[in-house]
Design brief:
24% of the residues lie in helices and 28% in strands. By secondary structure, it is of the alpha+beta class. Strands 3-7-4-6-5-8 form a 6-stranded mixed beta barrel. The protein has a 4-stranded antiparallel sheet with strand order 10-11-9-12, covered by helices on one side. The chain is elongated, with a radius of gyration of 30 Å. It is a lipid-anchor.
Length: 265
């Protein structure tokens, strides 16, 4: 039978729509319709916690406002000080190897997680309140979009917290916030306080004077005496930056002055 041009076009369109519907019913871009644990997983008991460090928030995945399943969410400007208690779930094979919300590849064997509103990436300590087990995860994805759930753990993190058997668990989450080193340095440059290191206090002024000369020669920093009630306090300073004063104080402790401490004015 010879088909005319219009008939062939209708048949082609029918097959295209059929294949599209099949693909949609099988989970869209994911290979599985439903999530599950891996059938042959490596030993994840030795997977280390995520190691918190400063990372700038990524451009991807941090859209200020977004909507999922008709509900709107607002991403936080910073995770500093964030704590919450709620239900944790986990996600595995269905999403393994696919892109996370900030453009990375999801690895269910790494210590990672998803959160609805924390900026990406963020580091979070997760405590299972049923057994007190803890992990540190790196949040690089969005979710879970189920009512009452506050975090979606990777397979490895869920295994470490013993959540796989129950599927969900009541947890406490706490952001481990790492300051931007450049911001810290700029803040120190703008600092107006003066810092002193108190070495010791004594009523023997002659002894204090001799020690003051030795310290000035050794550390190339001026000293001062603060006297009250016939007691002389020997202090090194002033030192303009707290970071430098802290490092010097640590050195003094190692050099035989374990009682030294920092004073800021």
């Amino acid at each position: 039978m010879i088909l005319n041009k219009n008939t062939r076009w209708v048949i082609s369109l029918f097959f295209a729509l059929t294949l599209s519907a099949c693909s949609s019913s099988n989970g869209g871009r994911y290979d599985m319709a439903n999530d599950k644990a891996p059938s042959s997983a490596p030993d994840v008991t030795r997977v280390e916690d995520a190691h918190p460090k400063y990372e700038p928030y990524s451009r991807g995945g941090n859209k200020k406002n977004y909507t999922v399943l008709g509900k709107g969410y607002q991403v936080m400007d910073s995770g500093k000080g964030y704590q919450a208690t709620g239900i944790a779930s986990w996600y595995g094979s269905k999403f393994h190897g696919h892109l996370t919300s900030n453009g990375e590849t999801y690895d269910m064997y790494s210590m990672s997680a998803a959160h609805k509103t924390l900026p990406l990436p963020s580091y979070v300590k997760v405590t299972n309140l049923d057994n007190s087990k803890q992990v540190i995860v790196r949040v690089n994805d969005r979710g879970p979009f189920h009512e009452g759930r506050i975090i979606d753990l990777s397979y490895a993190a869920a295994h470490r917290l013993d959540v796989l058997k129950t599927g969900t668990a009541k947890v406490e989450i706490e952001v481990i916030y790492i300051e931007n080193p450049e911001s810290i340095a700029l803040a120190e440059l703008k600092e107006t306080k003066s810092h002193y290191i108190q070495i010791l206090a004594s009523s023997n002024k002659k002894k204090i004077d001799a020690l003051a000369k030795n310290l000035e020669t050794k550390y190339l920093i001026k000293t001062r005496l603060v006297s009250a009630n016939n007691l002389y306090r020997l202090q090194l300073g002033p030192i303009g930056q707290r970071q430098i004063a802290t490092k010097l104080n640590d050195k003094l402790k190692n050099d035989g002055y374990p009682q030294s401490y920092l004073i800021s004015e």
